[in-house]
Each structure stands twice: as C-alpha cells, then as structure tokens.
C-alpha cells in the first residue's frame, strides 16, 4: 500500500516541459541500461523534440495508471474505515465486507500487478528522459 502511494503520488512532480532533472533516480540497473540504449544523450534540437513528445505520451499513460491504482487504494481505505464503525453482524457490514474482499482480490490480480509494473517502468522511463533533456539543456 505505502509503496503504491509513494509511486503514484509522484505523478504531480511531472510537467509537460521536462526541463529539470528529477530529484530521485531509483532506476534498476537493467532498466537504466535499457533507457540509455533507447534514449541516449541528446545531440540535436529535433531529438530533444522527439524526447519531449515521448515524455508527454508516457506521462499521460503514467497518470492514467496512477489514477486507476490510486482509486482502488482509496476505495479500500474508505471501506476499511466504514467497516470499523459498523457491527459485524449487520447487513451493511456484510455488504461492505464483500466489496472490500473483492477489491483486495483485485489488488492481487495479475492485471493489477501488470499495471503496477507498467507504472514503475514508465516512471523510470520518464525520469531518464527528463534527465537527458536536462543534461542537453545545460550544454
């Protein structure tokens, strides 16, 4: 839960003008090498434009994934709070508990895990592109 929170709350640090380096670059070595191959240091204004376009497209997808992951987490937290305030033998409790258990199962699903992995991969890609643009702009 907490790692999902820290990962997805990063959405707000991105903007459509990737001109500053990210504060954190916690890329894995394999990811880092992959991004260096796909996005080597910039050498021209046209390459910079392409990187910015890729950044924009990646950012849109990343924010979409974060919204989906966050919505599920927020609903679970809301249900948990409501369940704590109800008697366990009430019909309302039973209905909320059913929804809560269903959402917990969704969080363990391969689809959810794939979205989580995709968001992390995109986050690393965005950090890398932002760093390459920033390095180019310093020259």
From TrEMBL:
A GO molecular function assigned to this protein is: cis-regulatory region sequence-specific DNA binding
* GO aspect biological process, one term: snRNA transcription by RNA polymerase II
SUPFAM superfamilies registered for this protein in UniProt: occludin/ELL-like
| Listed Gene3D superfamilies | 6.10.140.340
The record's Gene Ontology cellular component field reads: transcription elongation factor complex
Which keywords does UniProt give here? Coiled coil
Q: Where is the composition biased (Low complexity)?
A: 1-13
Q: What's one Pfam family here?
A: Occludin_ELL
The cross-references to InterPro entries, in alphabetical order and at most eight, read: ELL/occludin (IPR031176), Occludin_ELL (IPR010844)
In this chain the OCEL domain maps to: 33-139
Q: Is Electron transport a UniProt keyword of this protein?
A: no
Q: Which residue ranges are recorded for the region named Disordered?
A: 1-49
Coiled-coil positions: 62-96
* Protein family: Belongs to the ELL/occludin family.
According to UniProt, the name of this protein is: OCLN protein
Recorded source organism is Cinclus mexicanus (American dipper)
Gene name tied to this protein? Ocln_1
